[in-house]
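Folds vary. Our protein:
___
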Amino acid sequence: MISGRSLTPCLAVFGTGSDVGKSIVVTALCRILSNRGIRVAPYKAQNMSNNSGVTPEGLEMGRAQIVQAEAGRIAPHVDMNPILLKPTSDVGSQVVVLGEAMANRTAREYHEQKEALFSTACQALDRLRESYDLVILEGAGSCAEVNLMAHDIVNFRMAEYARAPVILVGDIHRGGIFGQLIGTLACLPQDCRDRIAGFIINRFRGDISLFQEGTKWIESRSGKPVFGVLPWVNNLAVEAEDSVVIENPKKPPLDKDSGPAIAIIRIPHISNFTDFDPLTRISGISVSFIEQPQDLSRFKAVILPGSKNTCFDLRWLHRTGWFANLKTYAANGGHVLGICGGYQMMGTQVRDPGGLEGPPGATDGLGLLPVETILKAPKTTTLSAFEWKGVAGKGYEIHMGQTRLFEGNPLLNITERNGLACNEADGAQAAGLSIMGTYIHGLFDTPGITRLWLDQIGLSHIPVSVDQGPVERDLAYNRLAEHFESHVEVDAILSTLKTATGCD
């Protein structure tokens, strides 16, 4: 750890709970400060999410910090998210440390390693502070979980190590904003309360001027400023961090007359759900995450997404009745696309001889593609370039397993992995291209690839914007920054750095 010299300052953004807007605030600040010529880096000591991505070095980290790095116009690096927990069950997760999968651990086993992991996280933060002008720390969940604070390495313990002032974010849309903010302060010890520099209130609907008395009350009661109230805004096109945003999805259209619709099966351990963000923003198509088994005939296509526990989710498809629905849909000419874990499920069998995802054994697949998968190390994490029907695309691969195609044709040709040229087949296709599977995440980030797929499912009349994927995200960061600066006193937030101990 660095000592004995002046350190690059840090700013922390914590929340009153999960999904209150911490990630979006950090993303906004990264783009705003980048616009001002400040070299800023995001940081989250420990992230719990199955929504991950790959760095240019071929290492794995949380998508949220990749998004924030994009907003700051820098390359993502695992030091920005040194510890990633990918839940595989209600009580266990795969632990990824500095971009490499280490092992599956129960919550109790993980807590026993917290001190060593905290040291790893501090060293990663120190390296960022050597390379950037400012580092913005993101907290996790509520920063005032009193039963967890003694073992917390993400929130106040990390802010204390970094000597970072804290901005506390609350979500007025979910109600109880006064209880959220003042209640959080009441749960904290005095030294943590003192570290909080002020508040941001997120997702306000209506006339903000009507909340002025509320702002005054919060400031009077807490003795701390409200730096801004962010109005609700739709369709910013910034990726969400956690799948909590799809836990209450919009209902799919009732019939075919409602317009073309695409269904994504919301499996229990869904991963990389942001793969489908580009589809949700195409005008003229309804895209729905659905969990309850139902007739699929109204949909132009059905997608099986990635999974962090393929065998469990495959058994879930069998147990709940989805298996029969999907088989009927495919037999009647329906279009099914599987990505990563979804691709594995579409084969004849998934074998797990080493018990990577649970008890060793084999699980029967859906039998929609002529492939079989064996789950085994090492884990594949690559930035990949590929080609489909002469159209070039870019995406990434994250999977623990190898899939063998035993008849028929592959879907894609991989032309590059982690900067090295290659010529390898990926995926599979069947039933005249109505049934397809691939390991490529980010498939729809390339407009030309999206165009090909829409043509394939009979939606050639639906236009696809050239501003899709990375281009669209970059435009979204600019819109977010403009929205944020219009409602939040950014200079007042930055002034807290000058008074923070050790941040001169």
Remarks:
- Residues 256 and 334 are 14 Å apart (CA to CA).
